[in-house]
Amino acid sequence: MKLYEYMGKKLLHRYDLQIPRGKVVETPAQAAEAAAELGEVVVKSQVLAGKRGKSGGIAFAATPGEARREAARILALKLQGQAFDKLLVEEKLTIEQELYLALTVDGLSRCPVILASLDGGMDIEDVPAERIVFWPVDINLGLQPFMVREICRRMGASFELARQLLVLLPGLYRLFRDLDAELVEINPLALTPRGLVAADAKITIDDDALYRHPQLPRIHEKTDLELKAGEMGLAYVELGGEIAVIANGAGITMATLDMVHHYGGTPANFLDIGGGAGVERTAQALELLLETKPKAVLINIFGGITRCDDVAKAFVRVKENKGIDVPVAVRLGGTNETEGRAILKKAGLEVFLSMDEAVRQAVGLARERANGSTVGSAETAPQGE
Amino acid sequence: MAIYIDENTRVLVQGITGNQGSFHTAQMIAYGTRVVGGVSPGKGGQVVEGVPVYDTVFAAMEAEPADAGILFTPAPYARDAAFEAIAAGLKLIALIPEHISLHDTMEICAYARRKGVVVVGPNTFGLVSSGRCKIGFMPNRYFVPGPVGVISRSGTLCYEIVGNLTNHGLGTSTVVGLGGDRVTGLNFIDVLQEFAGDPDTGAVVLVGEIGGSAEEEAARYIAASMNKPVVAYVAGKSAPPGKRMGHAGAIIERDRGTFAGKIGALREAGVKVAELPSQIPALLKAVL
After folding, report:
1. Which domain, by its residues, includes A59?
2. Who among B240, B275, B278 is closest to A354 (CB)?
3. CB contact under 8 A, B276 and A259
């Protein structure tokens, strides 16, 4: 779960990092008011999308009037498709130097890792690797002062910077551990006349640890349908193509989407019903996909814990209760595949044994459907069946 | 020979009295696994599928020592259970649960490393040395003995691929599920090293996916040291950046962990890369 900048900064402050003086506002008038109090300010959109600066979501304002105008302009924006309703109005910092500092999880060394560089302020991807210090922290030891001294030496930090980092980094590490963070990134960490100040804050909390943190706000980046699917225990991501896909397991679902592309189709979604989905969950998944009005539905099940006859029963139930008016291609393999195929055959559906055949069929059906609706009078065509 | 586990491996099931625990204990026994005990705090004295249940791992080890453990406890209790297994002297633990927090996993891995314990997972289907021992929940009938070693980040996709191999008359030596999380105990390189020294393994299939850098690291190892042919398939070619595709690890962030980067690195290392899962048997037959 990503936190908004202003929330991240509040947390940094709680762990004794300096943050700019500022106010969270929702209207241009409030922005002007904040600027009147703070002096020269920066107005920052509070969105989770990256590259806010490049897309016009951040602006400096010398006067309250300017702050009002910039706030009005920014509030009208949609940044990478995300609407937002909050701005952070902060004092403009006097910056002598910009550093980069982050704590994240390194899959390779299986432990927290500190990333530190004197080249802050730009996208860290653009900083040459040799200018970034990469320091894995033994999670049993925790962050020790000697580590910070060595990180500072490798960064080439001045004595004065090192003195401040020796206080700041342990606080940041505590925050990272206390809050089960996946990422704590400060870019830039600004050196100002009053010391190091976090000019930005990107904090991501591990979703799987949220149960331990009831005090944290809950932020959803998902679409309504993705949320609804999550509540049903389904992993669902919208992709915008024509073929709705249901499969069981994240890997095979991805492989199914890739295969749809391979045979010239476009997937409408990623929908993993997970292991051991019964009739109920599978039926819900199918109903959810039908709501999105796809050109075709592709079901690819390789049964391990999941039973093919359950999947088949779910299909029949949805067909009988709600009706299914889009073409469907099904592959069933694994546990109880014979029973599953028999049930679907009775319901008039051809079932494939191989994934390739089912995908090709789905792509073909979607194409027919698309052509049919452009040739005929679009909306009424299916009634002729 | 096989790797990690074989017909002599004695297995302990933590969380044996739950639905998943008891069902898969029966499945493992049916496969031929030597399940010697189960643990469920407060349920000591019960018998599940003919297996004696103990309150603690220490108690189980006193009654009959085990070599490896499999953990079916709910995610919030997994760290404690894993610590217990490591402290009590198990040498390999398979962490089945999904949604174990990252920090818990890091702590488990750190403790395991200190004690020299192999951690499989979390969020894995387990591992199986075909025909000898299964520690996990994969469907029994696809795992028949043969010369192919398989390492996979995902479960069902791995069954799909192993199922394809079986249909083409290719059996497996050992199949290891690394798990779908960002941090896992075993990684591709650990398992490749084991396969390199295993006389039963003639070639290795690596089943990867987008996200992280495990495939790139594996490619580096293969180029430098792998003595056997490797065939790979990587899922997620069409996945958009920034969207988590089910697995916690399967996300392209800031252009890291992309399909193109992984495929490029693997090809450069001399790995035969399959475009579709169904192409793997033919690629293997050409190198075996």
Report:
1. 21-91
2. B278
3. yes
Q: Do domains B10-120 and B138-287 have the same CATH topology?
A: yes
Are B53 and B44 within 8 A, CB to CB?
yes
Highest mean pLDDT among A20-24, A284-288, B257-261: A20-24
* CATH class of the domain defined by B138-287: alpha beta
Interface of B with A in 174-213 (CB under 8 A): 180, 182-185, 187, 207, 209-210, 212-213
- Residue A56 region by backbone torsions, left for phi larger than 0, else alpha for psi between -120 and 50, else beta: left
pLDDT averaged per 10 residues in sequence order, chain B, 288 residues: 94 95 96 98 97 98 98 97 98 96 98 97 97 95 96 94 95 97 96 98 97 94 97 94 81 81 96 96 96
Using a CB–CB cutoff of 8 Å, tell me whether B31 touches chain A: no
- What's the CATH architecture for B10-120? 3-Layer(aba) Sandwich (3.40)
Using alpha carbons only, give the angle A309, B165, B119 rounded to the nearest 5 degrees.
85
Tens of pLDDT, residues A331-354? 998 888 999 999 999 998 989 989
If asked whether residues A170 and A308 sit together in one domain, one would say no
Report, as an integer, the average pLDDT of A104-129.
Answer: 91
- Which CATH number characterizes residue A25's domain? 3.30.1490.20
Tokens (6 digits) for A149? 């001294």
Report the CATH number that the domain containing residue A186 is assigned in CATH. 3.30.470.20
In a domain, A200, yes or no: yes
Decide if A330 contacts A315 (C-beta within 8 A): yes
Instruction: Report ipTM (2 d.p.).
Output: 0.91
The pLDDT assigned to A277 comes to 82
- Residue of A51, A205, A254, A302 to mutate, testing the B interface (most B Cβ within 10 Å of its Cβ): A254
Q: Are residues A56 and A147 in the same domain?
A: no
CATH of the domain at A230: 3.40.50.261
Q: What is the pLDDT of residue B8?
A: 97
Question: Is B217 in contact with A250 (Cβ distance < 8 A)?
Answer: no
**B111, B182, B209 member nearest A107 (Cβ):** B182
Q: Where are the domains of chain B?
A: 10-120, 138-287
Instruction: Please tell me which of the candidates B105, B245, B254 has its beta carbon nearest to residue A254.
Output: B245
The answer to whether residue A380 scores a pLDDT higher than 50 is no
Within this chain, do residues A361 and A246 fall inside the same structural domain, yes or no?
yes
> Domain check: are A136 and A196 in the same one?
yes
Name A346's Cβ contacts closer than 8 Å, sequence gap at least 6. none
Average pLDDT of chain A?
91
**A100 part of the active site:** yes
Determine contact, residues A242/A256, Cβ cutoff 8 Å.
no
Domain-embedded: residue A9: no
The total number of structural domains that make up chain A: 3
Cβ-count burial A74-85 (b if 16+ within 10 Å, e if not): bbeeebeeeebe
CA distances from A327 to A69, A299, A319, A367 (A): 52, 11, 12, 11
Instruction: For B58-98, give the DSSP string.
Output: HHHHHHS--SEEEE-S-HHHHHHHHHHHHHTT-SEEEE--S
